[in-house]
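Write out this protein's structure.
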Amino acid sequence: MSAPDQEYRLPNGGPSIAALPKVSLHDHLDGGLRPSTIIELAEEAGVTLPVTDAQGLEEWFVSQANSGSLVEYLKTFDVTIAVMQTAPALRRVAHEFVLDLAADGVIHGEVRWAPEQHLQQGLTLDETVEAVQGGIDDAIADLAERGHEITVGQLVTAMRHADRSLEIAELALRHRENGVIGFDIAGAELGFPASNHKPAFDLLAREFFPVTVHAGEADGLDSIKSALFDGRTLRLGHGVRLAEDVAVIDRDGDHTTVGLGPIAAWVRDREIALELSPSSNLQTGAIAQWGTELYDHPFDLLYQLGFQVTVNTDNRLMSATSLSRELALLAQAFDYDLSDLETFQLNAAAASFLPLEDREDLADRIIAGFEKA
């Protein structure tokens, strides 16, 4: 397990954030490859890359992702997916992905990815899931030998613009005893509501299988409403545009009174977690109506209002980020202290798709780790 490239700390100093126990809920497998691995896999697969040195390739991904558009942002995945079309490649990527989580202090991670995008060289859906699980298992075993305990679950994702969601839901259910702990839909959000995938969500509900849905990133309240009603989602992937349902009622000096619309009230009162990804939200223009800097992000508004906010990376490669970096950026923008960072991790632990006993154990590990800091 290698150390992070940079030691992130709170603005007033304190412990290394990477050393603190953390939970990662929203992290895409195909958005977290090491640039050096992409180069090696591309050479093996005969894939032409836009840049052929690791540093330059990393910079290319960030530059391309800084588009202000989710649709343009998603085009960068054409490169990573192209080198993830064989079982050995999937296993290696998953292995390294978990090692990198652990290097960032993560003790529980939920890795989302879309099996339907990895069939170009003849793999079956089941073979892709098995290959990724093999890599996860390898990494967990490697880390255990080094004294780092981590749990990792797969979130099997269906592409919302395609028509395979029922098939992918059935795939997830087949592997619920082999590492798959939840289901997701992802991809271009605008014009592709969760309601398009109602048969898949109905099946998952009948089988009591957890669901998270990308919503409130490139589309607004109607998309979030569909995720809640049609998807029966337990978490909102991003969900940042839920802030559109928060209205300022009165300002009196330093005191501001706000009111929650029905969707926002439902999400807050039912403690439906928001999988917020600050850097990614800036890159895709998800917060454009509030501004273009991190301090414009409605993260703090939602936190102060009592929403179940969690902090995530979304795609570590495209944002050149880590969970420690995201926490450091938020602390700098909103003057958060160690207790705030602990709250975000406890929120994530409570929202994870682990069984109750495991969630409680995760919370205990987080509290113990922060107490030692």
